[in-house]
Design a protein that fits this description.
- The structure is a homodimer.
- By secondary structure, chain A is an alpha/beta fold.
- The first copy, chain A, has three domains: 49 residues, no CATH class; 146 residues, NAD(P)-binding Rossmann-like Domain (Rossmann fold, 3-Layer(aba) Sandwich), CATH 3.40.50.720; 34 residues, no CATH class.
- In chain A, 32% of the residues lie in helices and 17% in strands.
- Chain A has ten helices and eleven strands.
- A six-stranded parallel beta sheet of chain A has the order 5-4-3-6-7-9, sandwiched between helices.
- Chains A and B meet through strand 8, helix 8 and strand 9 of A and strand 8, helix 8 and strand 9 of B.
């Protein structure tokens, strides 16, 4: 990971002079995550810019940003499920659906979606999820439910919720001897990951990932190529589209869980 | 891992009939760990027997058993340090020294030994350990001491103590982005591994291992070959040798920490 740009990103200013390039009524507007989109023109550090295939439709591939790359990369770059294997996905929001898409593209045979909201299950089928567990439907820990479904545990799990309890379940639901659990969700500051260490002794692996282990500048063009080659399906992530003037509608759709990704059109 | 033999090992009886092959005064003596050594003849399940190079000196290669293979394999099979990298070893008992030997054989440049007993440091130099930290000498967590020594953390760490606090330190002392921590020690039943999950988010990996990930039957002959080819040094692990009649002396040497490995000679 690039310490230089991460620090700059946190600061919200440009690296060269520590200043912002935006202002309103004389007050600075800070840069968000090094890209500062939602403007027609922007100023980015060169490390935040990647050149992609010019034939790629920008109104589609713009969703190949933080959330989708994080989930997709967590599966294809970190969990790396083998063809025919079993994968549990914790959380079926946009990141979890992208993780499921990664499992589908990898050829996983069983993709088990875990979510507290069963309304998400139908949509998740489009992303390859073919079995579903709602922890609320069971009176034992979800890791035990999954262990019973899979004769001891799944080959891989990907946690996309940010809930520390889901992180523990995701680790404890993988199979002894070869299971790999990948933590994607951003935890709260006060959370503690607790598990009995004998779970490690039994040859399990726990990995974390940031941005799906993609290096944006060098790796994003390849993700766009996967879309152009029809391996990675992007359109199904885009459930809504609104003009910029209605951007608050997009926030409502996101916060109410109705949208997976809503495109903001700068011009209508 | 082989469920079949592990269950049998725990039972202390043969798999075929659930009975023991040893007795004294009519009372059964149960099989220990599937091998039941300390007898001139023994009965083992075929899965517990490996054929090694007949030229190998048995009074040396007998130490290539649980402890040494566990530590050595934890480094060479699981942590896999690259040439020139940095490795922290937690616990400089026999397992930790074997882990250090694995780091030495792998070509690690910095091998940092961590132990609460500074008397172990001199001996550890023979196993390639070239820097030492006694947590008692510092008034901050050992992971912070190591992070300062190594500009952010070691490339690999191997925990060989069984202390859950050492496990947490071993995980927290590896570098963000690529660090791998391997847990070898057998924890207590009530221990809980606790860490802030953001440590995973920063692309660290935590792995457990059992018996250094060696499959005894298929892999042990290759470890013996490493000794025969003078890659893996075995003699330095053998600090004492006693005849069978003085076996209790060997236990004293072990419990007092004076021996690394003491050979029990069945005939003198």
């Amino acid at each position: 990971m690039c310490d230089l740009l991460r620090i700059n990103t946190d600061r919200g200013t440009m690296l060269s002079d520590g200043k912002s390039r935006f202002s309103k009524d004389g007050k600075p507007i800070y840069h968000f995550l090094g890209t500062s989109t939602f403007s027609e023109y922007t100023v980015c550090h060169v490390g935040s810019v990647a050149k992609i295939n010019p034939a790629a439709p920008l109104e589609k591939v713009c969703v190949l940003s933080c959330g989708i790359c994080t989930g997709f990369g967590a599966t294809v770059n970190v969990a790396k499920p083998k063809k025919g294997s079993s994968v549990a996905i914790f959380g079926l929001g946009a990141v979890g659906l992208a993780a499921a898409e990664g499992a589908r593209v990898s050829g996983a045979a069983r993709i088990i979606g875990v979510d507290l909201n069963s309304n998400r299950f139908e949509e998740a089928k489009k992303f390859g999820v073919n079995e579903f567990v709602n922890p609320k439907d069971h009176n034992k820990p979800v890791q035990e439910v999954i262990a019973e479904m899979t004769d001891g545990g799944v080959d891989r799990s990907v946690e996309c919720t940010g809930s520390v309890q889901a992180m523990i379940s995701a680790f404890e639901c993988v199979h002894d001897g070869w299971g790999v659990a990948v933590l994607v969700g951003v935890p709260s500051k006060d959370d503690a990951f607790k598990t009995h260490p004998v779970n490690f002794l039994n040859e399990r692996t726990l990995k974390g990932t940031f941005y799906g282990n993609y290096k944006p500048r060098s790796d994003l063009p390849g993700v766009v190529e996967m879309y152009m080659n029809k391996e990675l399906e992007v359109d199904k992530f885009i459930t809504h589209s609104v003009p910029f003037a209605e951007i608050n509608k997009a926030f409502d759709l996101m916060l109410s869980g109705q949208s997976i990704r809503c495109i903001i059109r700068m011009e209508d």
